[in-house]
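Quick one, T. Sequence first:
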Amino acid sequence: MILENPKFTIMVIPPNANRSMWTYATVGMSVNAKSPIELHLFFLTENNEIAEILTAIAYYNITSKPLGLDDTVNFGRPWQPNSICDHGLISRPYLDGQEFEEVELHGELISFFWLIPITLEERNYRWNFGIEKLEELFEIKQLNYLNPLRSSVT
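Structure tokens:
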């Protein structure tokens, strides 16, 4: 896969004093975009497949349709073997707080969103009932976003 942005990369941040999980983040996904965004995803272990998923989503964002808050994406495969989570929801970075959501960098406002792996059923629920209802279900069912083997909340 060739990206049209030679400055694009995936940053991999190992667990540290602030976070007990791995963080995978796009860097340069939205260069020259009208509404620039970057995405991050969390996982329990180091895993190159996460970087591949983020790269594919960045490629789609750069070459097809710009993505934004509350959009869903199809991973094209489960995010991990034996997982039913084969889609992603672009969400506010609830674990990081509002100050992380929008950052001005070199005079440009960039949104930093959380990519949450979801199931096809959850994606359909989001489109049928709205993002607020899906997020309510996530809270009620205490979504374990780190568990690739979790069941759908719907």
